[in-house]
Design a protein that fits this description.
The protein is mainly β and 243 residues long. It is built from one helix and 17 strands. Strand 7 and strand 8 form a beta hairpin. The longest helix is centred in the N-terminal third of the chain and has 22 residues.
Length: 243
């Protein structure tokens, strides 16, 4: 499926969801709910030794959310399988530990975690219907001090982002292009202040390739600038060719 068709499908699904919410009588839910991994707090291979800093963003007070945590090695051995629901704000903390949990029977490995082995922690935020709102994945070792983000928030899949990719901020209301010079039809405009992953520029250097709604699309380079939040701290946008 090409980028243009994917963007049109996303727009149709979004409009359908808005109409359903308007006629069903359910309270409006905040847009852009995310569960974001922002840092590494502690290390250790035993139960409860390793902790990450996280943020739950844009949760609607009184709404039900599911928190889904899987930790596994690259061979597929599962060490942590945690799955629970709660009503926001509830127990949605700003730190998250790696524990010996097996809520759905997916666990196939035992603690302590294997030292020096690359592990992946995937955290997924779901709505009251258990539909995915956002997914983040980080790679780490239990006896190390760092981590590497390689998932893309908002997508229940992995998308190709390089080490030079950063999250930028829209500096003006900006139309999306499904290819350089080709506006989406119907036209989609992103308001100033929103953020998105920036993968690099197109071959001409006139457009950034970005990730929006789980699709790779384009925006003029002048429409985006650095993101000055506590995570990215104004890091420069990539200038490498992403095409």
């Amino acid at each position: 499926m090409n980028s243009k068709v994917r963007v049109l499908l996303i727009v149709a699904l979004t409009l359908s969801a808005v109409v359903w919410g308007a006629v069903s009588g359910h309270p409006a839910r905040a847009a852009g709910e995310e569960w974001v991994v922002t840092g590494r707090l502690s290390s250790g291979c035993f139960n409860g030794d390793t902790f990450f800093a996280v943020e739950f963003r844009n949760l609607t007070p009184g709404a039900t959310y599911y928190a889904d945590t899987i930790v596994k090695d690259l061979a597929g051995t599962v060490y942590m399988d945690e799955y629970f629901w709660a009503i926001a704000p509830g127990p949605f903390d700003n730190d998250w530990g790696v524990f010996d949990e097996n809520d759905r029977g997916l666990q196939t490995g035992s603690f302590p975690l294997p030292a020096g082995v690359r592990l992946v922690m995937t955290v997924t935020l779901r709505d009251a219907s258990e539909q995915v709102l956002s997914t983040y994945s980080v790679e780490f070792t239990c006896d190390g001090g760092g981590f590497q983000l390689f998932g893309v928030p908002g997508c229940d899949q992995f998308l190709p982002i390089s080490a030079s990719s950063v999250v930028g901020s829209f500096v003006a209301d900006t139309p999306l292009y499904w290819a350089p010079g080709e506006l989406t039809n119907p036209l989609i405009t992103i308001p100033a202040g929103k953020t998105a992953w920036v993968l690099g520029t197109d071959a001409s250097g006139q457009y950034y390739k970005i990730i929006w709604a789980c699709s790779q699309v384009y925006v003029p380079v002048g429409s985006m600038g650095p993101n000055f939040d506590a995570v990215w701290n104004g890091r420069a946008l990539p200038t490498s060719n992403a095409d």
